[in-house]
Write a structure and sequence with these properties.
single chain; 604 residues; alpha/beta; ABC transporter transmembrane region fold; Rossmann fold; 2 domains; six-stranded mixed β-sheet; four-stranded antiparallel β-sheet; 9% strand; elongated
């Protein structure tokens, strides 16, 4: 397990996190926030108000029993207080509950949407970094702390208000009690702070272990991975990894909490002694007839409230401190900047495919010194169909990611229609681009129609165009056989849903990009799970449909790329061969060798 190292939150970060949460809630609903603060402060005073009313009632009854036999008017003041307090308390309690409940319901959804929107804007390069993944793991796990942080902040304000109010009352009994009660509370404050910091640092330093344990248990229940795990009993390894970490987690927390409670009991003894001294002072004043019996009740409760509020105030500050450490990491994501900034230049939506130029491009993945792309010079002319081939790890998919500006190149320049890629606004770039990755997306919770339409949301949904795209991708026939046809939900996990085969999913994904009809289209192994007959049909339609568009096709199957205008052969991040299919066969190099091997395999 990772070794824990102390990380202290500064006072500035602590206060900043509180105000950041208040600002977040204010942006969500100012009215609910104001209502929650005002009503909670009133509720915090409830015990003192009720004790005051009780004191007035006791004194009124004692006075009544000595001087009169009539309930009225001797009890008028007390009765008015009781009725008024009960009515106001009920109204305030209702408003308080409404405000808090609405905020609890709203904030999780509101914050998650803002968090996911922020994560999307950070870009692939930032999101793939291990330390960022650990931060995201903790932030998404602790998103519920936002609501807790707000309620704890509001409770702290209420506690502070009653602390001041009860201090003024205790001051009338014996002023020296106040500093002494504050003084004896300090050991408890430092004790709480010490253990809260140890727990937080432990959780922080074991984040990656926690993430690995969670990934293991999720893999053990995922239907896709469960098929193999049931046969091999591999789930025993995954569950064992989860159990080992959680046992370690539970034992560590148990040890911290046991020590905390033991020392906490010892540090609380001086406070009990001081309160007893305060009671004796109050009793003495009553015996001396300087206060009434009702005052005795009121002062005792004020003393208890003051002592309790010191403890509650410090505990809430410490709890807020602990929560603020988690909130600070959520805030850190919200204030995080992408690995590289967006461009400022606008691109029009091109009708014809753009020209793409690689000029002496070097690239290595973040935190790696090994160059994946090495001094690459390549020009893809407008409207041409280019195929990129090469063995695994040659840099083909990396090339696609660089065109999509998922990563920043180490040196050189990539240009779109002679405009530096880094200077183009990201949204403008993507409006002209459609990419089907090897790990294409499947949306089982959506219908077949929605899975295709999601390819281009800037268009109004057009059923005719959706069907046309499905036909080009050879998907229309099997979609038409579904019970609900294009309205069919594509997962058996939903009522009435069906599960497409891997090849069918790939055809639906390809249909998505026919529907998008971008000026720059990139297919990364688009037909890996599709039979040879369907593959030929799809590629014939790709070459025909995307006429005038710039098309880049990455494939291991040489039969799918032979009709490209130009074939690029990559090896270890460099272009080693390029030309038409016929030219490369005549060259008798790497392409020709690969083509002949595959042809022999088909012949057998």
């Amino acid at each position: 397990m990772a070794k824990s190292q102390d990380k202290n939150l500064s006072y500035k970060e602590f206060v900043s996190s509180i105000f950041w949460v208040l600002k977040l809630y204010w942006s969500m609903s100012p009215g609910l926030l104001i209502g929650a603060v005002v009503t909670d402060v009133f509720v915090s005073f409830r015990s003192l108000i009720y004790t005051y009313i009780t004191a007035v009632t006791i004194d009124s009854l004692l006075n009544l029993s000595s001087n009169s036999t009539s309930l009225f008017p001797g009890m008028n003041y007390a009765l008015v207080l009781i009725i008024s307090y009960s009515l106001i308390s009920n109204i305030v309690g209702y408003v308080r509950n409404y405000c808090f409940q609405q905020m609890r319901i709203s904030i999780n959804h509101y914050a998650r949407l803002k968090l996911f929107d922020k994560l999307r804007s950070l870009g692939i390069q930032t999101l793939e970094a291990p330390d960022v993944n650990n931060l995201i793991q903790r932030a998404t796990s602790n998103i519920y702390q936002l609501n807790w942080q707000l309620e704890a902040t509001i409770s702290l304000l209420g506690t502070l208000a009653t602390l001041i109010g009860s201090a003024l009352i205790v001051f009338r009994v014996e002023p020296l009690l106040i500093p002494f009660l504050v003084l004896v509370s300090l050991p408890g404050v430092f004790l709480d702070r010490h253990f809260l910091r140890k727990i937080w640092n432990f959780e922080r330093e074991t984040t990656e272990d926690y993430r690995a344990a969670n990934d293991s248990i999720y893999a053990a229940i995922d239907p896709k991975s469960l098929q193999e795990l049931i046969i091999t009993k591999g789930y025993l390894v995954l569950i064992g990894k989860y159990r080992k970490f959680t046992n370690f987690l539970i034992k560590t927390h148990e040890r911290f909490r046991r020590l905390w409670l033991t020392y906490g009991f010892v540090t609380n003894v001086p406070d009990l002694i001081l309160r007893l001294v305060g009671y004796l002072i109050i009793f003495k004043k009553f015996v001396e007839k300087s206060i009434t019996l009702g005052n005795v009740t009121f002062y005792m409760q004020a003393l208890n409230t003051f002592s309790g509020d010191i403890s509650r105030f410090t505990i809430r500050v410490n709890n807020l401190y602990e929560s603020s450490q988690k909130i600070t990491e959520i805030k850190e994501i919200f204030t995080m900047k992408p690995a590289f900034s967006d461009g400022s230049k606008n691109l029009p939506i091109y009708k014809n495919g753009p020209e793409i130029t690689f000029d002496s491009v070097d690239f290595s993945y973040p935190k790696s010194k090994a160059l994946v792309i090495k001094n690459l010079n390549l020009k893809i002319r407008s409207g041409k169909k280019i195929a990129i081939v090469g063995h695994n790890g040659a840099g083909k998919t990396t090339l696609v990611k660089l065109i999509a500006r998922f990563y920043k190149i180490k040196s050189g320049e990539i240009r779109i229609n002679n405009i530096n890629l880094n200077e183009i606004k990201q949204d403008n770039l993507y409006k002209n681009m459609g990419i089907l990755f090897q790990d294409y997306n499947t949306y089982g919770q959506l219908s077949a129609q929605e899975n295709i339409y999601i390819g281009d949301l800037k268009k109004s949904k057009n059923k005719k165009n959706i069907i046309s795209a499905a036909k080009r991708a050879d998907a229309h026939d099997f979609i038409s056989k579904y019970k609900n046809k294009y309205e069919q939900v594509l997962s058996e996990r939903y009522k009435g849903g069906v599960r497409p085969s891997t090849g069918q999913w790939q055809k639906i994904a390809i249909a998505r990009f026919f529907y998008r009809d971008a000026s720059l289209v990139i297919f990364d192994e688009p037909t890996a799970a599709i039979d040879a007959v369907s593959e030929k049909k799809i590629f014939d339609k790709i070459y025909k449909f995307f006429k005038g568009k710039t098309v880049i096709i990455i494939s291991h199957r040489f039969s799918t790329v032979r009709n490209a205008d130009r074939i690029i052969v990559l090896d270890q991040g460099r272009i080693v061969e390029e030309g038409t299919h016929e030219e490369l066969l005549e060259l008798n190099g790497k392409y020709a060798q690969g083509f002949k091997l595959q042809a022999e395999g088909y012949a057998k």
